[in-house]
Amino acid sequence: MKYYYLLIALVFSVVCNSQIEPVNKEASKEAKDLLTYIGNLNGQILSGQHCYSHETNRFYDSVKNMTGKYPAIWGADFYWSNGEVDPGYKLVNEVIKKHNEGAIITLMWHVGKPSDDAPYGWKESVQSEISNKDWKDLVTPGTLVHKRWLHQVDQLAIHLKEIQKNKIPVLFRPYHEMNGVWFWWGDKKGEEGFVKLWKMLFQRLTDYHSINNLIWVWNANAPRDIPKDEAFEYKDFYPGHQFVDVLATDVYHYDYEQKDYEQLLELADGKPIALGEVGQLPNVIILKAQPKWSWFMVWSGWLKTANTDEGVKDIYNYSNTITRDELKNEH
């Protein structure tokens, strides 16, 4: 196994004396080392590219074709699409392949409402409303909806355990953009809202399933006040430092507001922050004004539809941007 970035983490931990402990007290050595590396980037930023589950190489390879370099981070999604009830084993194989090639792995989870049956339709389930009754049942152990949610998580755990068996750490960002209004888990404020769902997931995967290779990335959306497309303040959906390793946000339509960056930094209170998804890449001026971002990840096709080849090259050639080949060359 090629844990290039883990060797870098060891160097940083010795030189900087700032080992960072994951929130999971039983976290694997690989997860600890990766989190320490991320926490000690010191103004550098990891490049990343998301790929659809049915096109696991297309846009990752596009970056290489455009810049001559592969992104340091490869991202994908446990979304049961294309009529399949559970294609997760295919994704696991690709995770192992990308890890062996030297990439850092980040995974997300677009999942349908637990009151629905898989395969989950996008508009019909993932981006649909959940009733107040179903939400209350979801966060109440013993109810039918809660049991169906447990089944969802347990199916996911099967694949996460296979990744763990291969000693691969994962930047795990489930139930993302929870401060927005477009997913069934979104816009649920209060202790019985999203915060409860996050804690339930954390406890099921860590305490029950003993999955210890995850770095828990709480991934919101940049706040905005567009009618019927709002994303609200970060703090109203944050489950607390004891359940989060990295705080991330998603930025589309070039909305790199300095106030939002400062707000997330304040909420993080020393924990790493990241650009979990972006449409248009930030330019060098923005990255210099916002130097604490640990990584960026361009969302699939937005690489080409929202960015110019020259803009992508500029960021990949920026002296503070880390690509996959630079991860290799560091050891």
From TrEMBL:
InterPro entries: GH, GH26_dom, Glyco_hydro_26. Keywords: Glycosidase, Hydrolase. One of its GO terms (molecular function) is mannan endo-1,4-beta-mannosidase activity. Residues 29-325 form the GH26 domain. The active site is at 177 (proton donor), 277 (nucleophile). GO terms for biological process: substituted mannan metabolic process. Belongs to the glycosyl hydrolase 26 family. This is Glycosyl hydrolase family 26.
